[in-house]
Specification:
By secondary structure, the chain is mainly alpha-helical. Helix content is 53%, strand content 5%. It has six helices and two strands, in the order H-H-H-H-E-E-H-H. Strands 1-2 form a two-stranded antiparallel ribbon. Strand 1 and strand 2 form a beta hairpin. It is elongated, with a radius of gyration of 21 Å.
């Protein structure tokens, strides 16, 4: 279901054919760009602690895999530009951190022993917060089935239509 408070971008309305025939406000036109994968070692920095470093290495790998999986799709479907670099980067960080939190939950369990007794593992709260943020990124970038259902593919041009006719 579409978000009734957030207007559709102009390119989506044009792609759908603008059935209401309402005027389309272009807004800010962002030139398309091929996004360059960030240096994940700047986000997940090296650590002197071997356990922290092994987690950071895995986070770098997870973020890189997510970038390589999602960016080619977004370049074709959403027409992302350089301005969207930070949003996509943050989404990949969320995926890596969720993986890290889930691994901690699998290793230490939902309940951990602390100085005040048995308490909830903090990784479960962290995973929930990152999942909430990830769902926002997914909706904004059109990566969920419901957000994709609002997008219709453009009609292919007829073979007889020549550009120079």
């Amino acid at each position: 279901m579409a978000d009734r408070y957030r207007p559709k971008p102009a390119f989506l309305r044009m792609r759908e054919g603008n059935p209401s025939k309402a005027t389309i406000k272009e807004g800010v036109v962002i030139p398309r760009a091929v996004l360059v994968e960030p240096d994940w070692s700047a986000v997940f920095m090296t650590s002197e602690s071997a356990s922290v470093e092994s987690e950071n290495v895995r986070c770098r790998k997870m973020a890189s895999e997510e970038w390589r999986r999602v960016v080619p799709i977004l370049e074709v479907s959403a027409g992302i530009g350089e301005i969207d670099h930070t949003t996509v980067k943050d989404m990949c960080v969320c995926v890596a951190r969720i993986d890290q939190a889930e691994r901690d939950l699998s290793t230490r369990g939902l309940m951990v022993t602390a100085e005040r007794g048995t308490v909830k593992n903090g990784a479960s709260t962290i995973a929930g917060q990152y999942r909430s943020q990830l769902s926002r990124y997914i909706r904004e970038l059109g990566l969920s089935p419901s957000s994709r259902s609002a997008i219709t593919a453009p009609q292919p041009a007829d073979a007889d239509d020549e550009i120079w006719d």
